[in-house]
Input
Amino acid sequence: MSDTIASPNAKMIEQWNTATGQTWAVFQAELDAQVAPLGSPALAALDVHAGAQVLDIGCGCGQTALQLADLVGQDGHVVGVDISKLMLEVARGRAGLSGLSNITFLEADAQTYDLGRQRFDAVFSRFGVMFFADPVAAFSNISKAMKSGGRLAFVCWRPLSLNDWMRLPLETAMTFLPPSPPSDPLAPGPFAFADAERVRSILNEAGFTHIETRPFDTPISMGDLATATRVALQVGPLGRLLRENPAVIPDVTEAIGTLLKNHVTEVGTVQMPASVWIVTASA
Ligand SMILES: C[S@@+](CC[C@H](N)C(=O)[O-])C[C@H]1O[C@@H](n2cnc3c(N)ncnc32)[C@H](O)[C@@H]1O
Output
């Protein structure tokens, strides 16, 4: 990547190109199934039209970029941007198989890379915008690439306390780990945009208008018990904690298996509450 050297997001670039990105690439199908119902309302809110030029920020393994490419049709085009080589490799493979020719994947940091000027009608992201070291700089950069009046829509997590699908496994694991100092709630990471007031202020400072943050709460399906347990243990903040503390893995595995078993529904899948913001704005 051209701007890896001295990048403000060097730590994230490292994470998403090693174990964090690797687990997302390995569990692409499971994670797509888990988060698709949360991305759908943001996609609907973007309301892209045929022929539109669209940017998908932090497109990862490409599911939403492919959905957008389908929506804009042959006269439109989608650029998926991401810092993770590993995930982009999956995305490019899927685009090749889909036969869609109106989609390009770009390995670049959306905070610093020159994405062009007044180029995009619409910008989308599913959980890809909470990792910027400087969110105002990032959204200012993104806004420059948008046509005046262009639409932005993304989905990001509301507080961990409302997201039992992650809170309960994390709390369970914590009982086996030494106490750690409280983390900075504003630090780049999945919950950095949990405070809607902060999100509005970032977008406002970056020059966006008509900013709206709408809560959306729904249970998410994490697959059957074996799948849900495997994904919970390896992906996200819990996966990272366990990679740093491998000695507790056997105990945590058993405890999380027991926890998730209590959330298996009559259809045989683990379902747990999730809570997100659907954020929309105009450039
Ligand atoms: C939680 S994953 C979501 C991936 C994908 N949007 C999805 O919903 O499956 C976050 C994504 O944001 C990407 N990302 C993080 N910081 C980024 C940055 N500064 N520029 C571009 N992508 C970034 C990561 O590499 C990762 O693919």
Q: What stands out?
A: The pocket of S-adenosylmethionine is lined by residues 9, 12, 16, 21, 35, 58-61, 63-64, 81-84, 87, 109-111, 126-128, 131-132 (CB under 6 Å). Residues 80 and 105 are 5 Å apart (CA to CA).
